Amino acid sequence: MPPLVQYVRHKTGLDPRDSSISPPSTRHGASQVNVDEKGFNAAVFSHLLRVARVNGDPIKTIHGDAVLPVGCFLTVAASHLDLAGEVVVVVENGDVMSHLHELRWPNSLCNALFIYRGHSKDVNELKNLLKESPPKQVLGFFDFDPAGLLMGLEDSMNFSGLVLPDIHMMSRRAGLRQLISQSNVFFAQSEQLNRLKLKISSDLSESLDFIVSSNVAIMQESMASHNVALVVVPLRNAPN
């Protein structure tokens, strides 16, 4: 065995000549091939998803139902979830996962399964899960600004709709809008706004007009802390 191969096998427990082997993605997996569980730089929670319900109904896993108090979410491996028949809402901001009950969801989402979108590896875990265990419906919930709408349209999860603030309510409550909207964030998103204008469909045109006319940028945290009413805006061009 060549010295370099011996060295790699000693350090990692893997044979670099075997193209079918991929580095472990978790520390648990790393410890099965190498005594140094940190040797592959696997993040501790990167392969796990954060899921919750608003109404306290059980979350189905392959090991049984999980029932959580209001304000809590379940951290679980994607492979342990079954999304069949679920209405899934993908949430952009992780902090909001502890405050879902403070948001004014439409009745159609009271029993939805809320999943934090995550970053890098965990977002890929979520995308793979949606393909392998397709839910009844997948909706996106992002900040209400040009960047948020753009994420909803460009995300490869192919949302059938977006959860947005009720702009008819917001138009009647100018004081609330001025309190929670960050115009400086809106003006910093000129690049996203220009891209959004090229992609926008009639489904979201009214929301975009409202954002632009009032220089609106409302973060999800503000929607929760000020009990903003939400609606589902279908994306008719989305895949069935």
What's the short story on this structure?
The protein is of the alpha/beta class.
Explain how this protein is built.
Helix 4 crosses helix 8. With 240 residues, the protein is α/β, with parallel strands linked by helices. It contains ten helices and nine strands. The strands form two sheets. The protein has a seven-stranded mixed sheet with strand order 4-1-6-5-7-8-9. Strands 2-3 form a two-stranded antiparallel sheet. The protein has helices at 3-12, 27-33, 120-132, 146-154, 167-172, 174-180, 183-187, 190-199, 202-214, 220-225; strands at residues 48-52, 59-61, 64-66, 74-77, 87-91, 113-116, 137-141, 161-165, 230-234. The mean pLDDT is 86.
Indicate the overall shape. Answer: globular
Order of helices and strands: HHEEEEEEHEHEHHHHHHE
Q: Could you give the order of strands across the largest sheet?
A: 4-1-6-5-7-8-9
- Helix proportion range: 25-40%
Unreliable runs: none
Number of helices: 10
The major pleated sheet works out as: 7 strands, mixed
> What percent strand?
15-25%
Total E-strand runs: 9
End-to-end C-alpha gap: 54 Å
On the 0-100 scale, what is the average pLDDT? Answer: 86
Structural class: alpha/beta
Query: How many whole angstroms does the radius of gyration measure?
Result: 21 Å
Note the topology.
Elements (H helix, E strand, L loop, with lengths): L2 H10 L14 H7 L14 E5 L6 E3 L2 E3 L7 E4 L9 E5 L21 E4 L3 H13 L4 E5 L4 H9 L6 E5 L1 H6 L1 H7 L2 H5 L2 H10 L2 H13 L5 H6 L4 E5 L6
Parallel strand pairs: 5-6, 5-7, 7-8
Antiparallel strand pairs: 1-4, 1-6, 2-3, 8-9
Helix pairs in contact: 4-8
